Amino acid sequence: MTILDTGVKYARNVGSYTIGSGSISELRFLLDRRRALGQGYVVFFVDDFFKNNEALLGKLAPASGDEVLFVSTIEEPTVQSIDEFVSLLRSQNLIEPCAIVGVGGGIAMDTAKAVANLLTNPGSAASYQGWDLVTNPAVYKIAIPTISGTGAEATRTCVMTNKDSGLKLGMNSDHTVYDQVILDPDLTITVPREQYFYTGMDAYIHCIESLSGSYRNPIGDAFSQQTIQLCREVFGIGDMMAAENRSKLMVASYLGGCAIATSYVGLVHPLSAGLSVVMGYHHCVANCIAMRAVEEFYPAYFSEFWRFAETQEIDIPAGVCVGLSDEKFDALFNATVVHEKPLTNALGEGFRRILSKEKVVSLFQKM
Ligand code: ZN
Q1: Which stretches does DSSP call E strand in 109-194?
Q2: How many domains does the chain have?
Q3: 10 three-class SS
Q4: How much distance in Å is there from the Cα of 65 to the middle of ligand 1?
Q5: How close is the Cα of 161 to the center of ligand 1, in Å?
Q6: Which DSSP symbol is given to 63?
Q7: Which of 5, 27, 113, 140 is deepest in the core (most CB within 10 A)?
Q8: What CATH number corresponds to the domain at position 130?
């Protein structure tokens, strides 16, 4: 047994998916089928970016008795925010929906996953942070991504930060995987350009980390290679947001999620988690900032990443750790090295010898 022997060895992908322009119209059919099974109501978790978007809300077509909850994207999910949603549903006796639908980016999709697990498993969100701790199957759930890259629609985790302990770790479980995914590239037309780039790069970074790691799965590798190829087509030339490229990036995000569902990330994600936990940066922009520090670990991908940013004329924040106190650097170090699995995957079981305090601080100083 090694630290990397977990449920990812037996890969679980989403139950089924549909893709294409206008495919969100399939939702009504899918939900009608679920409603016919008995308990008839549906709980929607919708990115609050769409709060006043009547066109999108109309397409979701909630029925009377359904609950539509808007998910704030100011902060990424915390175990506390997840517990609050679960308490809210329990207080309204909405504990056995026939389906949960997550509509939005990684935050909304991950929130829906976490709540779906907790409605069928006792206790609080914090008690399931880790690998393979969820025992009962979750509520049936559908993902409708409206931005591409995190792969939340396909992964077996839902990332949450515990504000008390500072631990940023999801519920890694087969039960976290969505039953159905609707991939409609029309939904990404309105994404701001920078956000589109940062989020799209999450798919690329997941796959460069997987392919560079020691824990390999030949099917995961194939997913990763194709994801990187699609990212090259989307970001390497021309307008990344052209209709064809939005469709390609949606595929890349999904395949990247499938890749990561059967592998581990590497060094970029732990550094990024440090920036998120200690400084509040959102996951995808934090990844891009962390890419400033990893040339010695991923030289070819480092060059390619910065070519993409240049081609698409995207600014990545710089100098974010200038003038930080020693306490902040301590916190950044601790929030990075706590991620033993990805760091073992990237650097081996002796990763702590490579990532000394001084080394980690020097990496953050490059950001
Ligand atoms: Zn990521």
Answers
A1: 130-131, 141-145, 171-172, 180-183
A2: 2
A3: coil
A4: 35
A5: 14
A6: P
A7: 113
A8: 3.40.50.1970
Residue 312: per-residue pLDDT: 98
The answer on 175 and 136 residing in a single domain is yes
**Nearest alpha carbon to residue 114 among 124, 344, 104:** 124
Q: Do 344 and 244 fall within a single domain?
A: yes
DSSP 137: P
CA of residue 284 to ligand 1 center, whole Å? 7
Total length of the chain: 367
159 C-alpha to ligand 1 centroid (Å): 9
Task: Write out the residue range of the structural domain in which residue 304 sits.
Answer: 193-365
Rounded to the nearest angstrom, the distance between the alpha carbon of 323 and the centre of ligand 1 is 27
Evaluate whether 177 touches 13 at the Cβ level (below 8 Å).
yes
Say which CATH number the domain at 337 has.
1.20.1090.10
User: Exposed e or buried b for every residue in 254-272, given b needs 16+ CB within 10 A?
Assistant: bbbbbbbbbbbbbbbbbbb
In angstroms, what is the span from residue 287 Cα to ligand 1's centroid?
Answer: 7
pLDDT band at 111 (very low <50, low <70, confident <90, very high): very high
* Ligand 1: centre distance to CA 206 (Å): 6
Find the mean pLDDT for residues 254-270.
Answer: 94
Cα 203 to ligand 1 centre (Å): 7
What is the reported pTM? 0.94
**What's residue 7's pLDDT?**
66
Q: How far is the CA of 28 from the centre of ligand 1 (A)?
A: 30
Q: Indicate whether 359 and 227 sit together in one domain.
A: yes
Partners of 71 in the β-ladder: 47
Rounded to the nearest angstrom, the distance between the alpha carbon of 199 and the centre of ligand 1 is 8
Query: How many angstroms separate the alpha carbon of residue 64 from the centre of ligand 1?
Result: 36
Q: Ligand 1 centre from 265 Cα, in Å?
A: 8
Of 130, 156, 188, which residue sits at a domain end?
A: 188
The torsion of the CA quartet 356, 270, 236, 240, rounded to 10 degrees, works out to -150
Indicate the residue among 139, 168, 188 that finishes a domain: 188
Based on the fold, state whether residues 45 and 61 are members of the same structural domain.
Answer: yes
Cα dist from 290 to 217, 245, 247, 274, 285, whole Å: 26, 25, 27, 10, 9
